[in-house]
Design a protein that fits this description.
The chain is of the alpha/beta class. Helix content is 48%, strand content 18%. Strands 2-9-6-5-3-4 form a six-stranded parallel β-sheet, sandwiched between helices. A three-stranded antiparallel β-sheet has the order 1-11-10. The protein binds glycine.
């Protein structure tokens, strides 16, 4: 089974801020200030942070929330995936109870993907659900994790296995937070940004593919806004990932496998870079399976090479990667189902592939890397 998506991105772009209550830049700051002032005064409210966002981003919000600071408590977790656990979620619920949180309490998630996934999960289960807002501080969280209502914690080493669909009431994107990020993290997020471009095609892909990355790797505001608009357009159509939302997994079937293999050999790889390599390998598979043209394939490689050096993949690694791909959540009835591009802005999902297809794709990838 496969399905084709051609997104009406032009339509989305007309009024990109009006969707899904994602506020950007000055408007976000203004709306957030108004929100802080209108929070129910008798209830306690919370800002979830990690040590990074507490140190570098929270001071930026202090002026906005000063007027109600007596009602606001800071909840701090350690940075990193380890905090995305049921134990941390339970601890947060208990602390909120001790601090007299009630049904009208509001939670603000100020941080990257770990904070928004964890905080969203806590908000979805605490007293069967309280209101929450995301204030993403990483590029990856701005264009992906903070939008779309997927919340999750990990089950041991298995990522995002315990979670809910529970959207934030609004998302406030303040691009100045990106200045606090290490270059490595920004580069990695470009993997997802390139993916959004490929899914959308059209003008947005033109802009992404022609962008000359300057040394900071901070994208232009406009590019961030449009990337968010692509994600919003997809999740609005299919919030529970029954069909269309699967397109957001472009590059991820191989990317997750590559990430898993790197982790096993104790050389962890940033998620977005694994996705970027996945975009190249999967485009090679799409060349054989869906007739993606050689010219388009070359453009994908050219754009990805701006953010990372593409490693050669050894033949001996193919069966290991295949094992990881067999464990992918998108599969059904023992088949590896991928999301592949037939053209810029045209994506098919649920495309079955075999280890032979993978091998062919990797051989072509190695010749272009
Ligand atoms: N990060 C993929 C999604 O939100 O569906």
């Amino acid at each position: 089974v496969s399905a084709l998506v051609k997104l009406p991105i032009a339509l989305v772009m007309k009024n990109k801020n009006a969707f899904y209550s994602v506020f950007f830049g000055n408007k976000a700051r203004k709306k957030l200030g108004e929100l802080f002032q209108s929070l129910p005064q008798k209830s306690k409210h919370f800002i979830l942070v990690d040590s990074h966002s507490l140190q570098h981003c929270y001071p930026n919000l202090l002026e906005l929330e000063a007027r109600i600071s007596q009602n606001i408590e800071i909840l701090e977790v350690n940075p990193g995936e380890k905090s995305k656990s049921i134990a941390t979620a339970e601890m947060l619920c208990k602390v909120m109870l001790e601090l007299q949180a009630d049904k009208h309490s509001v939670l603000f998630n100020l941080g990257g993907g770990v904070v928004s996934d964890l905080g969203g999960f806590v908000a979805s289960v605490f007293k069967r659900g309280i209101t929450y807002y995301n204030v993403p501080t990483s590029l990856l969280a701005m264009i992906d994790a903070s939008v779309g209502g997927k919340t999750a914690v990990n089950a041991g080493m298995y990522k995002n296995q315990i979670g809910t669909f529970y959207p934030p009431k609004a998302v406030f994107v303040l691009p100045e937070f990106l200045e606090t990020l290490p270059k490595k993290e920004l580069k990695s997020a470009w993997g997802e940004l390139i993916k959004h471009g490929l899914i959308s095609g059209g003008i947005f892909w033109d802009e992404v593919s022609k962008t000359r990355l300057h040394s900071s790797f901070i994208p232009q505001d406009d590019l961030i806004e449009k990337a968010i608009a692509v994600k919003v357009a997809v999740v609005k159509k299919d919030p529970y990932e029954e069909n269309l939302r699967k397109v957001l997994n472009l590059g991820h079937t191989f990317g997750h496998a590559f990430e898993g293999m790197a982790l096993n050999s104790k050389k962890p790889m940033p998620h977005g870079i694994a996705v970027a390599i996945g975009l190249c390998v999967e485009s090679c598979i799409a060349y054989y399976k869906l007739g993606l043209t050689k010219e388009n394939l070359a453009v994908v490689f050219q754009v990805v090479k701006r953010i990372c050096v593409l490693p050669q993949i050894e033949n001996t690694q193919v069966p290991i990667l295949w094992q990881f791909m067999l464990a992918d959540k998108k599969n059904a009835e023992g088949e590896v189902l991928t999301v592949l591009l037939s053209d810029f802005g045209k994506v098919e999902w649920k495309v079955p592939i075999s280890i032979h297809d993978l091998q062919l794709g990797i051989t072509l990838y190695n010749s272009l890397a």
